[in-house]
Specification:
10 helices; 2 domains; Acyl_CoA_acyltransferase; 3-stranded antiparallel beta sheet; Beta-carbonic Anhydrase, Chain A; alpha/beta
Length: about 270
């Protein structure tokens, strides 16, 4: 997509029709980083932001950057969205396949991802910690366009700062105990929530996954999970002096069950 006017209407059916009916496994969409309208179209059409192609465009004699979005067969829903009900796609809707084995996401700049959210007119950044938590986050927040979701890798703090810098209002983090427990004293949380039969030293020396099992066996998974989310949410808000409201959700290892949640909603209006 380059230049001219764009609208979500024709892009969505084209995106769904191409992989199933024409053979290509992957559709790619590129747009100038400054083109807010095209960024919104990409997000609303189900394309996922891969990264930034630096200097990939030329405008008025200057090299400019382009966002790179992609759509592959596993991204396609089995059912067409409501606004596609009147569009004749031909045949049945494609059934999602398994994710491409061995695929590696394009190297991306987390700050560029946040900038794309702002350019799309959205105010929510959703951070997740892998494919399963990403799927869980999308199930929890179906109304948000895909551009809002990203895996920050080791740069979660940078993502929060970028969210504040771009005027985003809400941060939502969805992760497992392994990701959320980084730098958080789980033994201290355990003691605060009532303690376990195991000595404190044993808890402190256990992996997060092991502590999860201990909490579950002792009936402390709910309160301990919520306390972990609380500590993570408060730490993230402290990074930006509370200018972005943070909500943290802890899910099980499979991303199928919410275990704990804590946070506040951004003010509206």
């Amino acid at each position: 997509m380059s230049g001219g006017r764009t609208s979500g209407g024709p892009v969505r059916p084209f995106a769904r029709w191409t992989p199933a009916d024409c053979g290509p496994h992957r559709s790619e969409l590129r747009t100038l980083t400054a083109n807010a309208a095209s960024v919104r179209v990409a997000g609303k059409s189900g394309f996922r932001l891969e990264g930034v192609a630096r200097g990939a465009g030329r405008v008025a004699g200057r090299d400019v950057d382009r966002y790179v979005f992609d759509l592959i067969e596993p991204d396609l829903d089995a059912d067409l969205d409501a606004d596609l009900d009147s569009v004749a796609v031909g045949g049945s809707a494609p059934v999602p396949a398994a994710a491409s084995p061995g695929s590696t996401p394009m190297t991306h700049d987390i700050t560029a991802n946040v900038a794309a959210i702002a350019a799309a007119g959205e105010r929510t950044l959703v951070l997740h910690t892998g494919d399963r938590t990403g799927e869980a986050a999308r199930r929890m927040l179906p109304a948000l366009p895909d551009v809002c979701f990203t895996d920050p890798g080791e740069r979660a703090d940078d993502a929060v700062r970028a969210a504040a810098a771009h005027g985003l209002a809400q941060l939502i983090v969805v992760g497992t105990i392994d990701a959320l427990a980084d730098g958080v004293p789980l033994a201290e949380i355990t003691a605060d929530m009532g303690g376990l039969p195991e000595p404190a030293a044993a808890v402190a020396g256990s992996s997060p996954a092991r502590v999860y099992g201990l909490w579950e066996d002792a009936g402390l998974l709910g309160p301990c999970g919520r306390e972990l989310c609380r500590r993570v949410a408060l730490r993230l808000e402290e990074i930006v002096d509370g200018s972005v409201a943070a909500q943290v959700v802890m899910v099980d290892a499979g991303g199928t069950r919410m275990v704990g949640m804590y946070g506040r909603m951004a003010r509206t209006g």
